[in-house]
Amino acid sequence: MTHHRVEAPHAPVARQPISSPDGRVLGHEYLYRSRVGLAAGVDRWPPARQDAASAAVLHTLYGHHAPCGTGLVFVNVTRAFLVGERPLPPADHRLVLEVVESVPADAATLAGLARLRAHGYHVALDDWTASPAQCAMLRHADFVKVDCRDLEHLGEAGLREARAGGARLVAERVADEQLRAHCVELRFDLLQGYALGRPALIGA
């Protein structure tokens, strides 16, 4: 298993709070940003560039010391990090490997997820749509993140399926107070979005 100091270029990183329904900040998602600090649209990049973006975020956070504070640290990762092709920092029981929706649920990925959780990493499935790949990975997930724009399509059945493995549900893109209240009614465990706090660049 590969987990040691992550070597990659430093990159601007923003963090966005992830809060409980009563407003307590329990962690942050750490997001790759362009050199001028803007969202970079990483999800539209080819796999190799996505790998490099995840590596840059991890290096910025863990290259010299762990992030300050005690909250959870959500970072988007690609298949390369799950199967040991790219290094991860040592597990600190704070790092949450947020599996992007393009990752296939092949045998190597599933074995990697099981191995990483056994070593103390947390796992989140990003942008839950109940795809076959996500359903195959669900048993390894500590968190399932749902984009609020998908709530109508998912319905109660889709949320119930996401909860089936015991993962905590995180509502993403909670844009306003009305949507925040709706997500509380739907019994989401955690909330993320502009209604809770916008991404802010962290110091280098």
From TrEMBL:
It comes from the Bacteria. Residues 4-204 form the EAL domain. Residues 1-20 are annotated as: Disordered. This is EAL domain-containing protein. SUPFAM superfamilies: EAL domain-like. It comes from Cellulomonas avistercoris.
